[in-house]
Amino acid sequence: MAEDEGTDGPFEATLPGDEARRAAFREAVAAGDVPWDGPRVAGNLSTGFQALDEGWGGFSPGALVALVAPPDAPSEELLYPPATFAPARYLSLLRNAPEVARHAAATGYEAFDVTETDTTRLLDDPAGALSGLDPESVVVVDPATELEREGRERYLTFVSTLKRAVETTDSVAVLHCPRMNPRALQRDLTLARADVVLELERYRADEPRHGVQWFCYCHKNRLGRVPDTPVRFAFDDGPRTVQPRDA
């Protein structure tokens, strides 16, 4: 197997959460002082990774994105970069806000607000929970499994409301979908309603020195092209993409 040539890790400058610092960041981008300012497809939102933005085009406005992964994968680390690089509403259903913030900071991303919530709040009043979204923002639902366990009609109402909210604000929603027992979930509904389905997979290399390797596949994209090849990730010091020399 070819050795790695380079990596794509946290931005040297990330988009802060408050508006004053966010404006300063945009000024730095305009002045050319920031090495990366978003995807190559005009109007799309950043995934938070240059390799994905250049290769996959970023996230199309109005998209529902499902990120599927093994339950023991470090997949939540892929949620922090897009939430940092745009105005964000991070809805956490399992972890409290300080826990999410500490973990995000440990991986190099810390400039976004976290909202602790639960299934009752989101399913009883989805419009209220999603009201007031900033334009071109990112909504993260972490994890969606808590909602998928509820009644099908209530969950469908939430997903449909979420879709309308991101469409009307040119935003993007990312549903974190750890793989669980499908009989206990509405996972089929999530994947059917999602515009984009990403899946993080673990592979064990033939040579022990290469260890565990992670690849992210795009299986579906209603709003753009489906890439031919996956993107390899490493999670040794925060999430980063890995570019093999023979890629």
From TrEMBL:
Database matches in Gene3D superfamilies: P-loop containing nucleotide triphosphate hydrolases (3.40.50.300)
Taxonomically, the superkingdom here is: Archaea
Spell out the Pfam families in the cross-references.
Answer: DUF7125
Task: Please state what the protein is called.
Answer: Uncharacterized protein
